[in-house]
Structures are given as C-alpha cells and as structure tokens.
Amino acid sequence: MFLWLDGTNFGMGVLYGLVDDHETKETILTALAPLWDGAEVWLVVFGGALFAVFPDVYGGLFSGYYLLMFAILGALIIRGVSPEFLEQREDAGWRRLWSSTFILGSTLAPFFLGMFAANWLVGASGIISVPGIVVGLALVAISTAQGAGFLGMKTAAGLDETVTRYGLLSQVAYLVLAVVTVGYLYVAVEGMAAKVVHPVVLALVAITAILGIAYLWLLRDGQYRPAFLAAGIQLFGLVALVAVLLFPVIYPVTGLTVFEAAVSTLQLKMMTVVLAIFLPLVLLYFAVLYSAFAGPVQAGEGY
C-alpha cells in the first residue's frame, strides 16, 4: 500500500524534474500536497507489523541495512520538506534549490526501497548489490508510470505530450528491468532457479507483461484511471513476487524460515483481532481522503 500510494507521489516528483512547463510543475505539487504524508502511515504499519510478528527478522534487517534505512528516511524527509520550503519565497535561486531536493528525494526514496527489498530477497551482506540496483531502478520506473497515470486523472485537460512520453518510457523501462531481475535471479542467485520457474512466479511475470502492454495503450489513449490501476496492480505483483520467491525463508542471510521466526500463536491471534478492528478504519480514512480530493486540480490553487 505504501509503495502504491506514496509511490505515485514519488513518480510525480520524478516527472516534476523531467518537465519544463511551469503550469505542469505547479499541478504536480498541488495534486500531491494533501496526500503524500498520509501514505506514510503504511510504512509505519510495515515496520510495526514486522517487529510484532517477526522480531528477529526486524532486528536483523534494520541492523544489517542500517545505513540503507537512514538513506531511505533521509530521502523521505527531503522529499517532504522541499515543497514546504519551495513555496516560502519567489526567489529563483531559492526555488531552484528546493525543486532540486524535491526531485532528488522523490527519486532516491523508491530507489533505496527497491535496493532494500532486493537485498532482503537475495540475502546480500552489503548495501550495494546488482539485484539491489536493478530493482531500485525498476521501482523508480514503475513509480513514474503510476505518477503519470495519476497526474492524468488530476489534470482537467489530460496529460501533455511530454508527460505521456515519459509515462510510456517508464513503463517500457520497468518491463525490461523486471525481465533482467528475473533472469539474474535464475542465473546468478543460488537456489532461485527452481523458484523462478514455479507456476505462480511465471503467472506473475505474465500478468506483469500483459498489464504493462495494457498500460501503454491506455495511457496513450487518455484512459488515465485504468492506466493508473494497471500500474498499481503491477506494483502489487512485484511485492507478491518477492514474497513468493522468499517463502518459506524470510531472512535469507541466516536461512530463518517464516515458521521459525514468527511469535507465538497466541500473540498472532491477538494481533489478528487488532488488525481486524483497525485496518478497516485505516482503509476508510484513505477512502475519505481520496474522495475529498478527487477530481482534477484547479489552475492557480497552489501547494
């Protein structure tokens, strides 16, 4: 959920750096202004759930990738504060500085999150790894594709040719990087070859390809809502792919399995009850939030 909702905002931040049109830039800032900070609730949920259910995994991941965690948080911080500072002055140099940090944070946040997911999957001992870089770039690409679809929904006149082109290119890049990732796992990561050819994995890859082709057609045709949903489903498919390839191991560095790492049955049942109560409330909050700010943004509204 975090990668889908805030990933959309990351993508619009990347597009902000790619376009030259001032009105498009202002539309991007206005579109994401009421939404970006709420999405980070899901990142907190991820950390809290991981700690509650798999405390040993939480400890291992957050200590093993300590610097990467701080890099993610740093990127999220500069992405968040930059639009706030950007609107404080009309000075060209000031706006150029905070525009640059906004673009940087929006690009680095998904890149570092992709590195984290890939390193977790392959059990990388260091921060920098080949799958980490490839998946990081893939997450930037799919976020940009999502951002283009969402921006089309928020722009009364639809996307201009430049943004549409970047949306299409980002989707093509994601499909290429996804194939490279799966190929690398099959060839270079021990124990992954059998998992990669599992029917569920092959089905996820096929669905990703079909949705990617559909996205290209939908975005070019101006059907922004289904294009946005197609890219979102691709992202959920990417997360599902990581989960399927991991299972039953959950911490490859030590070979710890899901069943060995989980807390007691009683604790799991208690957390399930809590989840059943609060998850619908969180989903309702987001339904209200996105309904309240639905529809295209108006020119001149500002951040």
From TrEMBL:
Residues spanning the membrane:
41-58, 64-81, 102-122, 128-151, 172-189, 201-219, 226-251, 271-293
**Which membrane topology describes this protein?**
Multi-pass membrane protein
A molecular function (GO) held by this record is: oxidoreductase activity, acting on diphenols and related substances as donors, oxygen as acceptor
Protein name in UniProt? Cytochrome d ubiquinol oxidase subunit II
Q: What is its EC number?
A: 1.10.3.14
Q: Name one Pfam family in it.
A: Cyt_bd_oxida_II
Q: What are the recorded Gene Ontology BP terms? A: aerobic electron transport chain
EC class of this enzyme? oxidoreductase
Q: Name one GO cellular component term.
A: cytochrome complex
What does the UniProt keyword field contain?
Cell membrane, Membrane, Oxidoreductase, Transmembrane, Transmembrane helix
